[in-house]
Design brief:
By secondary structure, the protein is an all-alpha fold. Among the domains are: 1-101, no CATH class; 200-291; 521-634. 72% of the residues lie in helices and 0% in strands. The protein has helices spanning 2-5, 22-41, 47-64, 69-102, 109-155, 175-178, 181-205, 209-256, 263-289, 310-315, 318-339, 343-351, 361-369, 379-389, 391-394, 400-412, 416-424, 432-441, 452-463, 466-475, 479-490, 494-503, 507-514, 526-535, 539-550, 562-569, 575-587, 591-621, 624-633. It is flat, with a radius of gyration of 48 Å. The two termini are 96 Å apart.
C-alpha cells in the first residue's frame, strides 16, 4: 500500500491500477451480469429503483477493492449528498411553486421577491468574501506546514542504518558451496519451485469449511440409509427363515399325513418350536457374553454354552462396507470430474486416492487418451505432476513402470525442469530403464547441452552402475573427468575403453586414449582407435586425429613424430589390419594419410623384423651350458 500512497509531483496520491488480476475481470463480469439481471426486474423509467441497483453494485465494489476503499467511500458519500440535495431541492421547488400560486394574487409578491433577491445577493457577496479569505488562509497554512515539515526533516533525520553482515553459513551448504555462484542460483531456483509448488498445493488441495459440513450431512444420510437397509435385511432374513421352516413342515406333513392334524397345525407347531430354539440360543449368547453369568463356559445346568459365530460379524462388518463404499464414491467422483473435462482437478483427485487405487498405469493411459490441453500443459502431464507432488503425502513412490511413463511424458512435453525436480526430490523409482529413456531423448552432439546426460548420470550413480556413469560424463564433454572416473571407479579394461569410444566418439577422447600415461603405457593402441572410428564412419574425427599426431613431436624420440611413435608402440594391430586401414583411406580419397600411414607401418615392420633377427642371432650365439643354466633357473 505504501508504494501507491506516496504523493506525486501534482500533490495528489498515486492510485493503484484497478484491474491487476484475472479475478478482477471475473468480478467485473459478474457485476455486469448482476446489473443486467436486476434492471430487467424493475421499471426502466423508475429512477429510484435504478439508483438502488447501482448503489448496491457500488457497495460491492467498495467491499472488493481494498486498496481504494477509502476513496470509493468518499465518492459514494459525495454522490449520496448530491442526490439528497437534488431530492430536497425538488421538494422545496414543489413547495415554493404551491406557495407562489397562493401568493400570485397578492400585490406585494414582486416587492418581496426583489427584497429577497437583494438579501441573497448581499449574502452571496459576504460568502464569496469569506471563501476568498478562507482560501488565502488555507494556502498560508499549507505553506507553513510544508516549511515546518521540511525543517523537522532536516533537523531530526535519522542516521542511515548500516546493514550487518551475516557470517553464518547457509543451512545445508558447505563453505565452498556457499561461495559458488552457480550452485547458489540453482539453490534459489529450487527454493522458488518449492515455494510455487506449496502455493499450488495450498490452492488446490484444501476446500472450504462448507464442503466439510456438506460431506458430514451426506455421511449422516448414508449412515441412516445403511442402518435402514440393515434393519430391512434382518427382517427379510427372519421372514426367509420362517418361510423355510413352514415349507419344510408342509413337505414333511405331505410325506406322512398324520391323522387328526392339518397342514396349518404342522406349520404352526414348527414355527413355535423354531421360536423356542431361537430364544434359547439368544439366552445362551447373552450368558456367554456376560462374564458375571458365564461360569467356565457352562450354563446353569452344567451344559456347555455355544458362542456366537464370528462369521456373521465378519460378513456384516460395517467398516469393510464403509471402506468399499468410500472407494466406490472416490472412483465415481474421479469419473465425474474426468467426463466434465476438469482434468486438473481429476488428476489431483486420482493422485491422492486412498490405498493408491487410482495411482495406476490404467489411469495414466486414460489421461494420455485425453487430447484437450489444460492451460500450458496436457492432461497427462497434469496427472504426472499431481502424482509426483503427492508422493510425500502418500508416503510411497510410483513403481518402475509408472515412473518411466511419467518421465516419458515429461520428456515429450520438453519439461526438463519438472524432470530435474522429480529426480532431485526423490519422487521417482529409479531404474536402468528410466536412465536409458532419458539418454535416448538426448539429441545433442558430444557436449550435451540439454542436461539429459547429467540426469542420467545421477540415476546411474544412485543405482551403482559406474560404467554407465563414466559414459554419461564423457558425453557431457568432460573427457578428463570421465577418464579419471573410469580408472578409479569402473576398473575399465581395453574393451571398456573401446565401448566408450564407440558410444561417444570425439577428437579429445581419441587423443586422451592414445596419449602415454605416467607409466608410459597407452590406454588404447592407435590402430584400434583408427579402426573403431572408421568402423562407425567417423572420418571427420579420424583424419584430424592422425594429422594432429603427425604435427606433434614425440616425447621419447625427437627424430619421429607422435603418430609414428604411437604406431611403433602398437603391438595389437597386425599388418593385415594396417593394410585394410590403408586401403580404406585410399578408397575414400585420402591419399596423403594413406601414404603417411604406409610409411609408418613400413618402418614398424622393418623394426620388428630387425628385432626378430637380432634376437635369433643372440640366441644362436649363446653357449649350450649357459642355455641349460638359464632353463634350470627358469
Amino acid at each position: 500500500m505504501s508504494e501507491y500512497s506516496s504523493p506525486t509531483t501534482s500533490g495528489f496520491a498515486k492510485l493503484p491500477p484497478i484491474i491487476t488480476q484475472d479475478s478482477d475481470k471475473v468480478f467485473l463480469s459478474e457485476l455486469n451480469n448482476y446489473i443486467n439481471h436486476e434492471l430487467l426486474k424493475i421499471d426502466p423509467d423508475d429512477d429510484e429503483q435504478r439508483y438502488i441497483v447501482y448503489k448496491t453494485v457500488f457497495n460491492k465494489i467498495i467491499e472488493y477493492v481494498v486498496a481504494l476503499r477509502m476513496l470509493l467511500t468518499m465518492i459514494k458519500k459525495e454522490y449520496e449528498d448530491t442526490i439528497e440535495a437534488i431530492k430536497k431541492g425538488r421538494r422545496e421547488a414543489a413547495f415554493l411553486h404551491g406557495k407562489l400560486k397562493a401568493m400570485a394574487s397578492e400585490p406585494s409578491t414582486v416587492r418581496n421577491f426583489r427584497k429577497r433577491s437583494d438579501e441573497l445577493e448581499d449574502k452571496l457577496i459576504v460568502i464569496q468574501k469569506d471563501n476568498e479569505r478562507l482560501q488565502s488562509r488555507l494556502a498560508e497554512l499549507k505553506l507553513e506546514r510544508k516549511r515546518r515539515e521540511q525543517q523537522e526533516k532536516e533537523i531530526s533525520e535519522p542516521p542511515k542504518r548500516e546493514l550487518k553482515k551475516d557470517h553464518r553459513l547457509i543451512p545445508g551448504l558447505s563453505l565452498e558451496d556457499s561461495t559458488d555462484l552457480t550452485l547458489l542460483y540453482k539453490k534459489l531456483e529450487q527454493l522458488d519451485r518449492q515455494y510455487k509448488e506449496l502455493n499450488i498445493t495450498y490452492r488446490t488441495r484444501y476446500v472450504p469449511k462448507a464442503r466439510k459440513i456438506e460431506l458430514k450431512a451426506s455421511l449422516d444420510h448414508k449412515v441412516t440409509y445403511r442402518d435402514r437397509l440393515l434393519w430391512q435385511g434382518q427382517l427379510y432374513k427372519a421372514k426367509q427363515n420362517r418361510l423355510k421352516i413352514a415349507l419344510e413342515a408342509a413337505q414333511a406333513y405331505n410325506r406322512v399325513k398324520p391323522p387328526h392334524q392339518t397342514v396349518g397345525d404342522a406349520v404352526i407347531f414348527a414355527l413355535a418350536h423354531a421360536a423356542r430354539i431361537q430364544a434359547a440360543q439368544e439366552k445362551a449368547s447373552e450368558l456367554a457374553s456376560d462374564p458375571n453369568q458365564n461360569d467356565g463356559g457352562q450354563g446353569r445346568d452344567g451344559s456347555p454354552t455355544t458362542a456366537p459365530s464370528s462369521s456373521t460379524y465378519e460378513d456384516d462388518d460395517p467398516n469393510k462396507e464403509k471402506e468399499a463404499e468410500m472407494m466406490l464414491e472416490y472412483i465415481e467422483k474421479f469419473n465425474e470430474l474426468f467426463e466434465d473435462g476438469k482434468y486438473e482437478e481429476a488428476s489431483i483427485h486420482a493422485a491422492n486416492s486412498p490405498k493408491g487405487i487410482l495411482r495406476t498405469s490404467a489411469t495414466l493411459a486414460k489421461f494420455r487418451d485425453a487430447k484437450v490441453p489444460i492451460k500450458d500443459k496436457s492432461p497427462l502431464l497434469s496427472f504426472c505432476s499431481a502424482l509426483m507432488s503427492s508422493v510425500a503425502a502418500v508416503g510411497s513412490k510410483p513403481n518402475i513402470r509408472l515412473s518411466c511413463e511419467c518421465v516419458d511424458c515429461a520428456l515429450q512435453e520438453h519439461r526438463m525442469d519438472l524432470l530435474s525436480y522429480w529426480i532431485s526430490q526423490n519422487r521417482l523409482t529409479l531404474s536402468e530403464e528410466l536412465a536409458q529413456l532419458i539418454q535416448k531423448y538426448c539429441q545433442c552432439s558430444l557436449a550435451c547441452r540439454c542436461k539429459c546426460q547429467a540426469l542420467a548420470q545421477n540415476v546411474y550413480a544412485h543405482l551403482g552402475l559406474h560404467h554407465q556413469v563414466a559414459i554419461c560424463i564423457l558425453k557431457q564433454g568432460r573427457v578428463q573427468t570421465g577418464i579419471e572416473y573410469a580408472r578409479n571407479k569402473s576398473n575399465f579394461t581395453q574393451e571398456g575403453y573401446i565401448e566408450v569410444l564407440r558410444s561417444c566418439p570425439s577428437l579429445h577422447l581419441a587423443n586422451t586414449f592414445v596419449a602415454p600415461t605416467e607409466n608410459g603405457f597407452r590406454m588404447l593402441p592407435v590402430g584400434v582407435i583408427i579402426g573403431v572410428l572408421l568402423e562407425i564412419n567417423h572420418f571427420n574425427i579420424a583424419l584430424p586425429f592422425i594429422q594432429g599426431l603427425q604435427n606433434s613431436p614425440s616425447q621419447d624420440d625427437e627424430l619421429i613424430n607422435a603418430f609414428q611413435a604411437a604406431v611403433l608402440d602398437d603391438n595389437t594391430t597386425t599388418m593385415d589390419d594396417w593394410d585394410e586401414l590403408i586401403e580404406l583411406f585410399q578408397n575414400h580419397g585420402h591419399q596423403d594419410i594413406a601414404m603417411s600411414l604406409m610409411a609408418s607401418v613400413t618402418v614398424l615392420d622393418a623394426m620388428r623384423n630387425a628385432l626378430k633377427q637380432s634376437f635369433v642371432n643372440f640366441i644362436s650365439d649363446v653357449p649350450e651350458e649357459t642355455e641349460i643354466e638359464e632353463e634350470t633357473s627358469v
